[in-house]
């Protein structure tokens, strides 16, 4: 308890600021990534021939080490929040994109034919049939992307852009385990809390008839 009390007395204000910055990075990046991923996922679901090559190609972005990608962006953009936002948004895209595409293409064709028979246009089928039926897959991708982004946002501290990574990297540099844990535990808790929020949002936006599926 003495160690914990001492930590909060010394670093409490800094920790609050770091958490706030970390949350900003995560929310902004995931929102941008979500919009891009949804648009690409919907477009690729209309052209299966292209998607067979495009999705694996986009997946290659996930294999680029975060430090390398941020380093390249740093050269051209310098030390500013935009650098980390672009990097995190890029990494946030693929899990949502892949699940959006998979969810939409796996919608039962009979349901779409039935919707056509009711006089629905392609746009109406997309928003009233395909996306609602793919909702579970989309939110699974969103949850994965958010959790990943919480961990990737730690890298912001590597170029002096704050966040919970400040504690972790400072702790590594000074061989201070208390600082490392002081950054890692809030990041883990943040990931869990955001996961709960996403689950809640999913329950709120999922049509009642699909909640049991």
TrEMBL record:
<dbReference type="InterPro" id="IPR051204">
    <property type="entry name" value="ABC_transp_perm/SBD"/>
</dbReference>
<feature type="transmembrane region" description="Helical">
    <location>
        <begin position="178"/>
        <end position="201"/>
    </location>
</feature>
<dbReference type="InterPro" id="IPR035906">
    <property type="entry name" value="MetI-like_sf"/>
</dbReference>
<feature type="domain" description="ABC transmembrane type-1">
    <location>
        <begin position="19"/>
        <end position="202"/>
    </location>
</feature>
<keyword id="KW-0812">Transmembrane</keyword>
<comment type="similarity">
    <text>Belongs to the binding-protein-dependent transport system permease family.</text>
</comment>
<feature type="transmembrane region" description="Helical">
    <location>
        <begin position="20"/>
        <end position="43"/>
    </location>
</feature>
<feature type="transmembrane region" description="Helical">
    <location>
        <begin position="152"/>
        <end position="172"/>
    </location>
</feature>
<dbReference type="GO" id="GO:0031460">
    <property type="term" value="P:glycine betaine transport"/>
</dbReference>
<feature type="transmembrane region" description="Helical">
    <location>
        <begin position="55"/>
        <end position="79"/>
    </location>
</feature>
<dbReference type="GO" id="GO:0005886">
    <property type="term" value="C:plasma membrane"/>
</dbReference>
<keyword id="KW-0813">Transport</keyword>
<dbReference type="GO" id="GO:0055085">
    <property type="term" value="P:transmembrane transport"/>
</dbReference>
<keyword id="KW-1133">Transmembrane helix</keyword>
<keyword id="KW-0472">Membrane</keyword>
<protein>
    <submittedName>
        <fullName>ABC transporter permease</fullName>
    </submittedName>
</protein>
<dbReference type="Pfam" id="PF00528">
    <property type="entry name" value="BPD_transp_1"/>
</dbReference>
<dbReference type="InterPro" id="IPR000515">
    <property type="entry name" value="MetI-like"/>
</dbReference>
